[in-house]
Amino acid sequence: MLACVLHGKEDVRLERIPVPKQQAGELLVRVDAALTCGTDLKVYLRGYHERMISPPAVFGHEFAGEVVASDNGRFPIGTRIVAANSAPCWDCYFCALDKPNLCTDLLFVNGAYAEYIRVPARIVDENCLILPADLPASKAALVEPLACAVKGIEDVAVNEGEKVLVIGAGPLGLMLARLSVLAGAEVTSVDDQVDRLVVARELGVASTVTGRLTPELVEQLRAEYTPHKLGFDCVIEAVGKPETWNQAVELVRPAGRVNLFGGCEKGTELRVDTTRLHYDEIRIYASFHHTPETVRKALELIATSEVPAFSLVREGRSLLDLPNVLQEMRAGSTPPKTAIFPQLPSGTRLEAEELERFL
Ligand SMILES: [Zn+2]
Ligand SMILES: [Zn+2]
Fold first, then answer.
1. For the chain, which domains are there?
2. pTM (2 d.p.)
3. 175, CA 20 to 30 Å: which among 46, 188, 207, 310?
């Protein structure tokens, strides 16, 4: 089969490799669509992922497709499915605490940038879902990142009528903004790229602010968008930089909540004004990953179009063009998400309206 193999730092190669063999309890799935993700870009730029990928390895983790080999009665051959990229063990300390996202034995699957992917038995049992007949794979593949966003919004319990600021309008920032809109909040999105904020508007965000978050812009946001210039009820950081983590804390009102959602580089630190934290009773959350429950909610939100997937997945490209797509992502010139189709000829570029056809 054709697969995109990561060999090291910025070294991906399209190769013919054997189709994985389905073992007991596993599913072999034909990938109908995979989605690009910032994590994959990071993996490509670094050449590895500490917990998940050591080269040479197939990578890519957001996908949907059709079962082509199975011994599982719930997912017979021909079933269209989406699977999350991990599953918890339900056996460790954190699983027992009902924090399966912190499972000490999270089992990951990678290899979505290929014609076929083997889904491990535990993921089949815990985090594999059947697609509604009319849901294209290119939409369904959004389940995994959306499940993380669903958890993020649940953790800070966004309420109706609240003023929510989402810092960053990358794919996750956009999903977090959309979920806040669905919760009835009045959402402001800030990002330095205008085209991303156009998508935020499409998703129902009330105000968009273009620019880099300088101290002046922080002041302006507080002054112009929050009552009595006190700050937002809830601030969600979806950038993943210590500077913006700090600014998120600065922008919340007393007794407000912050979700430091964007993961920062290892070893970086957050400095918080203790007076503000204590006397203003600020609540700081930081959400990581997803749970089987939020994976299920995510599929529902996509199936009902409450989260309109094609506002985020705006183009379709061939698996053969993935190395170029990764370079374009690096240059920052791609839409929030690109659907990668193994069966599409090289050089093709599908617009959002055409994606529907690729079930
Ligand atoms: Zn992802
Ligand atoms: Zn566990």
1. 2-142+307-355 (3.90.180.10), 146-285 (3.40.50.720)
2. 0.97
3. 46
